[in-house]
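[recover] target loaded
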C-alpha cells in the first residue's frame, strides 16, 4: 500500500524582508493593546466628565438651597426659589403607574409566546414586539396627542372628571406603560425560552396542566431575568422625556391627583431649559438632572443585588391567588429598594393631613383584605399568604363541620369538582395570556397604520426641498432632514470606530481590571436617560461655545457609544474558538489574529449593531434640544451655528395651534417612522436573527 504525500505548498511571492516573528508579535500586540485600551478608557473618561460637569453646573442651586432642594415645593422663577419635590413626585407616580400596568401584561404576553404560541406566531410576534421598542419617543408622544388624548377626554366626560385638555398624569402613565411593555416582554420571552426542558417535562409528568407547569416550573426559574426586565423598564420609565413632556400637562405644582396635569424631572427640563433666562434657573434644572442621574444609577446598582436575592426567594403558595402574587414578585422586588429611598424623601414633605389620609387608606385596605379572606373561607378556597383563623360561627351551613357518615361520595364529588376547576383554570389562564399578547401588539399596528394614513397625504416634493416659511412654493422640512442626517453621520463616524475598538479590548482582555471596570461603567451608561446626556453636552460645549452641530453630534455619539460597544462585544464572543486556535497554529500573532480573523468574521454582526445604534439616535429629541438648539434655515452657516433637526418639528408642531403646521408634523412623523422601521426590518431580514437584545443592558 502506497501512502500518498500531500501536494507541495505553493511558492510564496517574493516580499520585502520582515523583522523576526517574535519582534513583530511584541510590537503589534503592544500597539493593539494600547489603541484598544485607550478606546476602552475613553468610556471611563466620558463618564467621569459627565458626572463632573453636571455636578459643577448644578452647584450654584445646590449651594443655595442645600438638602431642602429635594423637599421644597416652590418653583418660582421671578423669585429664583426652586424645589425638586413636585417633579420627584411626578416621576415616581408616573413610573409606578406605568409599571403596574405594563408588568402583568408584558409577563403574560411573553409567557404565551414562549410556552403556548406555535412556532410561526412566536417568531412573528417576537419580532413585532421588538419593533414596538424601536419606535422613537417623540412618535409615541405624537400618537398620544392625536389619538390617546381624545379617548382620555371621552373617559373624563363620561366619569364627570373636570378636565379640558386630557393631558394628565394618567395619560402620561399610559403612554409610558405602552413604551416599556416591549422591554419587559422581549427579555421575559428570552429567559422563559432559556428554561430547561426538564423543568417542563417534570411538571407535566407529575400530572400538571399547562398553566400549572408555567406557574410552578417556568416562571419561578425565570424570575431573575424577569427582575432584570423590570429594572430595565423602570429605568426607561424614570428617564423618559419627550412623550411625557407632550402628554403630562406640565404643571409645576404638587399634585396628587392623577386626573390632572403634572410634571416629571425629564419633562420640566425639556420644557424649560431652552427658555431659562437666569443662571440660577438653569442651575436648578441641571440639579434636577443630577438627581435623576443618581436615581438611575441607584436603580441599576440595585438590580444586581435583587438578582442575587431573587434566586433565594421562598417557594410560592399552592393556591391560585398565591401563585399570581408570586408571579408578580419580581415587580415587588424591583420596586422595593428605590421606593424605600424615595419614601424617606416623601416622608419629609408630607403634611399631617396627608399622613392621616394614608393611614385611613391603609385601614381600608386591611378591612378589604379581611373581607376577601372571609369570603374565600366561605368558598373553601386557600387564598395565598393572606389567611385568617377559622371562625366557629361559620360552621354548619357553610360546611366547616365534621364530614357526614357517607364521606366517600362527598370526597369523590369534591375531587371531580376540583378536576373541573383545574381544567377551567387552565383554559381561562391560557386565554388571558393570549389576550395579553393581543393587547401588547395593538399599539404597534395602530401607530403604524394611523400615522401612515394621516401622514401619507402630506408627503410631496416640497416637503423634502423647501423650508417651513416657504408659503408660496410649498412648505417643507428639508433643512431639518439634512441637519439630522449630518449630526447622525458625525456621531456615527466618532462612536462607531471608538466603540468597536473598546469592544475588542473587552473581548480580548476580559480578565484585566480595566475590562471589568469599563464593562460595568458601560452598562451604567446604557441606562443613563438621554436628557442627562443632553445636559452633559450643554455643560461641556454649548454653555461655552453656543448651540451647534458639534454639540448635538457629541450628545448623539455619547448615546451611541455604549450601544456599539455592547453589541460589538457580543458579536466577538460568537466567533468560534477554533478560528482563533487555527490562526495561532499557523504562527499568527494576537493582533494579526484579531485583525485578520476575528474582526472580519464578526463584522456583519458588528455592522448590524451599528445600524441599530443609528436607528436609536435618529429618533432622539431631548439631547438635541439642549445641545443643537434649532434653526429655521438651511444648515449652510457651518457646524458651529444653531442646527435644525427633524424631531424638533414633530414635537413643536404637534403642540401648535397653527393649522398649516399640523400636516408638516404628520409628514415628519411618517418619514421618521419609516426610516427607523426600515432600518430594523432590513437588519432583521438580512441577519435572520434576533439582534436587538445585544443593545440592552443586563
Amino acid at each position: 500500500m502506497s501512502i500518498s504525500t500531500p501536494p507541495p505548498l505553493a511558492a510564496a511571492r517574493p516580499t520585502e524582508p520582515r523583522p523576526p516573528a517574535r519582534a513583530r508579535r511584541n510590537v503589534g500586540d503592544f500597539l493593539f493593546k494600547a489603541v484598544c485600551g485607550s478606546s476602552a478608557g475613553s468610556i471611563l473618561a466620558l463618564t467621569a466628565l459627565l458626572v463632573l460637569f453636571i455636578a459643577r453646573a448644578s452647584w450654584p442651586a445646590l449651594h443655595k438651597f442645600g438638602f431642602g432642594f429635594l423637599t421644597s415645593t416652590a418653583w418660582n422663577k421671578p423669585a429664583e426659589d426652586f424645589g425638586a419635590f413636585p417633579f420627584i413626585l411626578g416621576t415616581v407616580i408616573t413610573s409606578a403607574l406605568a409599571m403596574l400596568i405594563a408588568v402583568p401584561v408584558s409577563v403574560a404576553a411573553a409567557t404565551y409566546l414562549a410556552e403556548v404560541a406555535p412556532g410561526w406566531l412566536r417568531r412573528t410576534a417576537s419580532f413585532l414586539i421588538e419593533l414596538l421598542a424601536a419606535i422613537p419617543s417623540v412618535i409615541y408622544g405624537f400618537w398620544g396627542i392625536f389619538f390617546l388624548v381624545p379617548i382620555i377626554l371621552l373617559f373624563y366626560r363620561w366619569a364627570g372628571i373636570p378636565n379640558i385638555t386630557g393631558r394628565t398624569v394618567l395619560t402620561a402613565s399610559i403612554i409610558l406603560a405602552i413604551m416599556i411593555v416591549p422591554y419587559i416582554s422581549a427579555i421575559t420571552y428570552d429567559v422563559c425560552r432559556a428554561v430547561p426542558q426538564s423543568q417542563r417535562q417534570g411538571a407535566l409528568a407529575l400530572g400538571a396542566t399547562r398553566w400549572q407547569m408555567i406557574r410552578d416550573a417556568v416562571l419561578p426559574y425565570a424570575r431573575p431575568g424577569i427582575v432584570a426586565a423590570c429594572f430595565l423598564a423602570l429605568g426607561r420609565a424614570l428617564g423618559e422625556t419627550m412623550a411625557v413632556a407632550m402628554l403630562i400637562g406640565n404643571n409645576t405644582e404638587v399634585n396628587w391627583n392623577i386626573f390632572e396635569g403634572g410634571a416629571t424631572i425629564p419633562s420640566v427640563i425639556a420644557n424649560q431649559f431652552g427658555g431659562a433666562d437666569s443662571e440660577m434657573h438653569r442651575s436648578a434644572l441641571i440639579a434636577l438632572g443630577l438627581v435623576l442621574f443618581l436615581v438611575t444609577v441607584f436603580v441599576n446598582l440595585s438590580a444586581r443585588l435583587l438578582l442575587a436575592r431573587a434566586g433565594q426567594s421562598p417557594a410560592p403558595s399552592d393556591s391560585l391567588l398565591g401563585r399570581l402574587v408570586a408571579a408578580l414578585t419580581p415587580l415587588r422586588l424591583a420596586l422595593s429598594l428605590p421606593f424605600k429611598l424615595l419614601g424617606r424623601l416623601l416622608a419629609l414633605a408630607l403634611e399631617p393631613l396627608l399622613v392621616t389620609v394614608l393611614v385611613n387608606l391603609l385601614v381600608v385596605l386591611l378591612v378589604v383584605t379581611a373581607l376577601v379572606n372571609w369570603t374565600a373561607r366561605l368558598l373553601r378556597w386557600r387564598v395565598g399568604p393572606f389567611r385568617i383563623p377559622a371562625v366557629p360561627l361559620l360552621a354548619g351551613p357553610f360546611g366547616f363541620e365534621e364530614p357526614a357518615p357517607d364521606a366517600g361520595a362527598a370526597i369523590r364529588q369534591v375531587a371531580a369538582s376540583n378536576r373541573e376547576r383545574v381544567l377551567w383554570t387552565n383554559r381561562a389562564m391560557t386565554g388571558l395570556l393570549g389576550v395579553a399578547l393581543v393587547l401588547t401588539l395593538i399599539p404597534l399596528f395602530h401607530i403604524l397604520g394611523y400615522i401612515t394614513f394621516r401622514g401619507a397625504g402630506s408627503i410631496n416634493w416640497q416637503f423634502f426641498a423647501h423650508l417651513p416659511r416657504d408659503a408660496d412654493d410649498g412648505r417643507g422640512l428639508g433643512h431639518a432632514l439634512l441637519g439630522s442626517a449630518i449630526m447622525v453621520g458625525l456621531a456615527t463616524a466618532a462612536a462607531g470606530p471608538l466603540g468597536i475598538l473598546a469592544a475588542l479590548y473587552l473581548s480580548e482582555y476580559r480578565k484585566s481590571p480595566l475590562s471589568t471596570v469599563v464593562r460595568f461603567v458601560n452598562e451604567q451608561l446604557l441606562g443613563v436617560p438621554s436628557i442627562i446626556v443632553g445636559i452633559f453636552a450643554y455643560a461641556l460645549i454649548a454653555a461655552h461655545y453656543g448651540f451647534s452641530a458639534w454639540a448635538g453630534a457629541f450628545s448623539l455619539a455619547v448615546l451611541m457609544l455604549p450601544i456599539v460597544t455592547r453589541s460589538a462585544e457580543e458579536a466577538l464572543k460568537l466567533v468560534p474558538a477554533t478560528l482563533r486556535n487555527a490562526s495561532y497554529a499557523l504562527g499568527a500573532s494576537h493582533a494579526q489574529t484579531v485583525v485578520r480573523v476575528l474582526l472580519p468574521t464578526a463584522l456583519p454582526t458588528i455592522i448590524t449593531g451599528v445600524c441599530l445604534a443609528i436607528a436609536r439616535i435618529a429618533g432622539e429629541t431631548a439631547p438635541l434640544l439642549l445641545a443643537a438648539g434649532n434653526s429655521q434655515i438651511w444648515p449652510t452657516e457651518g457646524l458651529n451655528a444653531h442646527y435644525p433637526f427633524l424631531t424638533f418639528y414633530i414635537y413643536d408642531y404637534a403642540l401648535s395651534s397653527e393649522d398649516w403646521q399640523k400636516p408638516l408634523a404628520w409628514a415628519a412623523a411618517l418619514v421618521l417612522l419609516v426610516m427607523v422601521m426600515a432600518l430594523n426590518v432590513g437588519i432583521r431580514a438580512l441577519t435572520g436573527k434576533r439582534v436587538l437584545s445585544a443593545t440592552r443592558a443586563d
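[recover] notes: The mean pLDDT is 79.
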